[in-house]
Amino acid sequence: MNRFLSNATNKIDAKGRVSVPAPFRNVLARLDIQELYAIQDFVYPAITIGGPDMLDRYEQQTGGGDLFSEEDADMSLLIHGGGVFMKLDGEGRLMVTDFIRDYTGITDQVTFVGRSDHFQLWEPVRYEDARRAALERRIARGRAGAGHGETG
């Protein structure tokens, strides 16, 4: 499988490292991703992590426009000024830095969340709250559409 799926919560060790779940490490190995790009998510209190191709995709969103427009300037500020490169250590762990902690509220545990071609780091309670709210919205949309011949 070449997609990040599911979720797992792992404890942060005394040195501030957390083990990346084995299925996520397997995807990284299969895709030959050696260096990770991490950025603060634009919607959720989570850190989004992917390979260099993720940074390329973000840069394409600014490359075709006016470099002096507010929208392109904002995007560059966020993806270049707010992104960092990370690497797993030899044991498959990430360092949980202040960059991660300050944005997410993570303290002693990290929930890894698969998002297809990237994954996210969440504070466990915030993840569960966001997951539950997303499910409730999805169910409500399904119910609203059910009367009109649509499916969820």
Automatic annotation (TrEMBL):
Residues 7-54, 83-126 form the SpoVT-AbrB domain. One of its GO terms (biological process) is negative regulation of DNA-templated transcription initiation. It comes from the Bacteria. Belongs to the MraZ family. The keyword Cytoplasm applies. This is Transcriptional regulator MraZ. NCBIfam families: PRK00326.2-4. It is found in: Cytoplasm, Nucleoid. Keywords: Cytoplasm, DNA-binding, Repeat, Transcription, Transcription regulation. It comes from Flavimaribacter sediminis.
